[in-house]
Write a structure and sequence with these properties.
Blueprint lengths: L26 E5 L5 H7 L9 E6 L14 H13 L7 E5 L2 H4 L8 E6 L5 H12 L2 E9 L12 H6 L2 H11 L10 E3 L2 E5 L2
Parallel strand pairs: 1-2, 1-4, 2-3, 4-5
Antiparallel strand pairs: 5-7, 6-7
Length: about 200
């Protein structure tokens, strides 16, 4: 990632022990992209093949659940676009600026090899993203949830923090879709949950 600007968290190298890299085209969807660090790390590894396609969904706008980024989103989006422009594989990347519940249904069913969910961390939104995305995932494809045990630290009360924990949304999805996922391939690594579709 040459000339990358912005914040980097976990990158695609956290996936290497679970998802094999193969020299073939893949289709990849990322929900919640921020400055684009993870997206670009996928482009350089799993999606290295010139025929790979990567899609990024993020609203990059102010909303109450993420008040710590108030009035920063336009600047973050500008930096993201600059990072994409500096990427040698930029022609493989499609950026969809908007809310995931509006953008995911526009995508083709059974199309993606890997879907990474790192959008709104409130349990109900994680569940919604997972349900909408699962239709778009190929049989044998992987869905990855970031921040399995995240909670909203703006709540002082421990019970309120627990109520806002991401794991509730993820576990609800795993329970409802238990007959459509490979139970032997549900893995938690470095606070990321991996699920393989049957």
């Amino acid at each position: 990632m040459q000339n990358f600007e912005g914040v980097k968290y976990r990158l695609a190298n956290n996936w290497f022990s679970v998802i094999p890299q193969e020299n073939k085209p893949i289709n990849y969807l990322e929900i919640g992209t921020f400055y684009g660090a993870n997206l670009l790390s996928v482009e350089e590894t799993y999606a290295k093949h010139p025929e790979s396609k990567l899609f990024a969904i993020d609203p990059w706008i102010n909303y109450s659940d993420y008040s710590e980024y108030k009035d920063m989103h336009d600047k973050i989006f500008e930096t993201y676009m600059k990072n994409i422009e500096n990427c040698s594989g930029k022609n493989k990347i499609t950026t969809m600026r908007g809310f995931s519940h509006e953008k995911i249904p526009e995508l083709q069913d059974m199309f993606f090899d890997i879907i990474y969910i790192d959008g709104n961390h409130e349990p109900e939104y994680i569940l919604e993203d997972a349900v909408l995305s699962f239709r778009k995932l190929k049989s044998g494809g992987y869905m990855i949830f970031d921040d399995f045990d995240w909670h909203d630290s703006t709540h002082n009360d421990p019970q309120e923090q627990e109520d806002h924990n991401t794991k509730h949304g993820i576990n609800s999805f795993l329970s409802a879709y238990r007959n459509k996922i490979d139970k032997s391939r549900i893995l938690l690594i470095n606070n990321q949950m991996f699920v393989k579709k049957l």
